[in-house]
Amino acid sequence: MLIFSGIYENAEKNPNKICMIFRNTAVTYGELINYIDERTIFLVGKYTKGEKVIIKNTNPVNTIINLLACSRAGLISVPVNAKLSSLKINKITQKVNKCCIIDDKFTFYSIGEKGDFIFPHIEDSYIFLGALSSGTTGHNKVIWRDHRSWTSAFRYQSEVFNISYKDVLFLTGSLSYTANLNSSMHILNEGGSIVFSKSIYPKTWIREIEQNNITSIFMVPAHYRILLKELKTNLSNVNSLLSAGDKIDAETVDLLKEKFPNAHIYEYYGASELGHVAYMDFRKNDKVDSVGKAFPKVKFWIEDNLIWAESPYIAPDFRPKASVGDIGRIDNEGNLYVLGRENNTINKGGVKILPYNIEKVLDNHPEISKSVVFGVRHPVKGEEIYAVILSKSNSLTIKDIKEYCKKNLEPYLQPKKIKIVRDLKLNSSGKIDKAGLFNSL
Known about the structure:
This protein has twelve helices and 24 strands. With 441 residues, it is an alpha/beta fold. The strands form seven sheets. A nine-stranded mixed β-sheet has the order 2-1-9-8-10-11-12-13-14, sandwiched between helices. The protein has a three-stranded parallel β-sheet with strand order 4-3-5, with helices on one face. Strands 15-16-17 form a three-stranded antiparallel β-sheet, with no helix packed on it. Strand 3 (52-56), helix 3 (60-72) and strand 4 form a beta-alpha-beta unit. This is Acyl-CoA synthetase (AMP-forming)/AMP-acid ligase II. Residues 358-431 form the AMP-binding enzyme C-terminal domain. It holds the Pfam family AMP-binding_C. One of its GO terms (molecular function) is medium-chain fatty acid-CoA ligase activity. Residues 9-102, 133-304 form the AMP-dependent synthetase/ligase domain.
């Protein structure tokens, strides 16, 4: 199955159904495939199959249309955040050897009707996407994706996450974030609809969710926490909540259960290289610290403390099995626990320390919303432990946290330096900007 196959089937069945909404613009399935076809014809006449295109649109609807047109033309899309600096764009350009940049100034010239135009033959083994992943270094790497590594998961995403053609999905953040893009492609192939948020403000999100009769939401945990701070009433129309990108905390899960009483609440663990690996259904599984059980067709195991996976969803360059360096464990019931990234391990005087174990204790403090723990170079010990704390109140002090650490952490696990912040800056994927936090210490 190709990344656009289901979309064309849906357009034939229900051409007048709205598939995407952004601001005051609504696009039907019939209009979507016409846009794709027109732009495909232009691209085929101008570029060679297999060439790489950077897509940098501010309007997510255009991003989707352009990516699908490129994939139908046999080109490889690399979506980037429209707000990315020229310096970063240049670095990405050097990596991917692009043939062009499709941005808001790019013009698709009409070259007449489709007529007898023969669209290129595309195999599901062809690369259609270069997914940008920053990992833990802050430097972009590109993961090349073929059609089948995404489309083979769509059926199971629908089954596992309780999503169907009847759903209206709400998305926040850039489509350069692979999980957002994947959610978009899945719902369009399923035959549902997407509402792209027009704002970064949670009050606007709430209005959009209510006005558009949203039934499904995908957000990273940080966005759910922001949403819950503003949400005063229960939203009973939503039947599916999905999270990824970072481990969601128990307090946020409990609030989601309260504010979305009829919603299944899920998260999945995966990576740009691996695709879906594990998933958690918080209505059925009480092991909140885990990321759940194996996603359908996935086998995972622990080797030298690292999580390894084998599945049809792994990117071509990493097959048949791969690890992204996450440290983990598996319990007797088959639940997977992610304990941190191997290259984030703190080496304090020869003792290897996982930030996860310290963060877990800190996050149990009633006045701490979220903690981020780092290892910082030390001339004698190798590394020392630093912690950045997002406080729930203005009354929490560093002295309070140190006293709490003395009571709840072994001496060698207690942070040497603690910084309290009012907010945790997010990167373009909606994840906590750990590299930026590190640089601010």
